[in-house]
Amino acid sequence: MNTVAVLGLGDMGSALARALLSAGHAVTVWNRSAAKAEPLADLGATVAGSAAEAIATSELAVACLLDYASVREVLGTASLSGRTVVNLTNGTPRQARELAEWVAARGGKFLDGGIMAVPPMIGKPGAFVFYSGPRDVFDAHRDAFAAFGGINYAGEDPGLAALHDLALLSGMYGLFVGVLQAYALIRSEGLSAVEFAPLLSGWIAAMAGFTEQTAVEVDRGDYSQGVVSNLAMQAAAFDNLPAAAADQGVSAELIAPLHRLLVRGVADGRGAQNLSSVIELLKK
Length: 284
Ligand code: FVH
Fold this sequence. Notes:
Mean pLDDT: 97
Number of helices: 13
CATH class of the largest domain: Alpha Beta
Helix content: 40-55%
Largest sheet: 8 strands, mixed
Bound molecules: ligand FVH
CATH superfamily of the largest domain: NAD(P)-binding Rossmann-like Domain
Strand content: 5-15%
């Protein structure tokens, strides 16, 4: 019963199955479209005829499907009694908590996870996965999880892996908002994005140094200490970003939401505070 089942053999599910095989685990795979299982069979995986069959022969089932609706659809075909399901499908904390209850009601144990890697990174340095759910269930399967890369246990609440995953993705998408806007401005004059890229990555690396200090201010809820670039100044300078974009024939829609918040922050009397003070405006 130490076989690991992998349900879903898209780009990520296939990478997870390959990593488990490379680490020496016995692996049973299943995918809705059977053809995606063939390369894994060549690597030594057992191909199950159904998700129910894959789960029946494995104590641990790793689900990596498109979304939570497909996870429920697939798991709903199987008996989960005595089985552990670790869901590595992207979703929200609420979806993870609801799925945990749904699996428990069917007699299964549940962990949720958040993969911080693209498929080629799986099993290699730099990849890591968040897990959340009962500690004893997590500890029982650490060995299998090690095949995927780094392990980060986020806590007993099954929603915490998704929370951490989405928080990191928020940071990533924020970065790409800036990168795309910068390249759009550069390209608007016919300049080379490739030539500009080293300047941009160096600047981003320098600014990333403020991440920790921002965290200190956010945890304290005090944005008035050590202010060197106050919000009023930044809001005035930020006005130039959409203005220049308009002049250059570039849309400002990527940066418009932050512009609105800066203006609101100043109107709220936060002009003398740090930029981090804008986080107060995000609270609902
Ligand atoms: N790929 C990535 O870069 C990211 C990295 C971080 C984590 N994400 C999440 O991982 C989940 C799976 O992503 P993926 O890259 O494997 O996605 P696809 O290659 O599109 O494969 C999707 C699989 O889901 C199966 N599927 C979809 N709907 C159903 C359904 N109703 N019933 C059964 N299976 C279903 C699909 O099957 P098929 O189309 O091949 O028959 C694929 O196996 C995802 O949550 C990412 O956000 C990846």
